[in-house]
Design brief:
This protein is mainly β and 118 residues long. The chain has no helices and eleven strands.
């Protein structure tokens, strides 16, 4: 059974950095990435990457601060988050699927908490 295992969440002060990891087991996906859900808000896409071409997407609010990368040999994607802001506080979910269209990102991890204090 395919699984996505996230790690790397935690608590940091504003301006700090965290690195999230997501290891996929049981299956290889064309697209992997990250969504997040802040308290009282809906889930929103943060960043995705096509595992073949390396084509990436970032939501506007994280451009220049977050970097997504992949290690196909380990079937793992990473999200390097720099210059973190309290607005980045959320549960971050690893996602995967046949494409990076939201409707195709059908596999979700359990989520990892990221808390940024001011």
């Amino acid at each position: 059974q395919a699984q996505l295992a996230e790690s790397g969440g935690g608590s940091v002060q504003a301006g700090g950095s965290l690195r999230l990891s997501c290891a996929a087991s049981g299956e290889r996906y064309n697209c992997m990435g990250w969504f997040r859900q802040a308290p009282g808000k809906g889930r929103e896409p943060v960043s995705t990457i096509y595992t073949g071409s390396g084509t990436t997407y970032y939501r506007d609010s994280v451009k220049g601060r977050f970097t997504i990368s992949k290690d196909n040999g380990r079937n793992t994607v990473y999200l390097q988050m720099n210059s973190l802001d309290p607005e980045d506080t959320a549960i971050y979910y690893c996602v995967a699927g046949d494409s990076c269209a939201n409707r195709d990102l059908r596999h979700w991890g359990q989520g990892t908490q990221v808390t940024v204090s001011s």
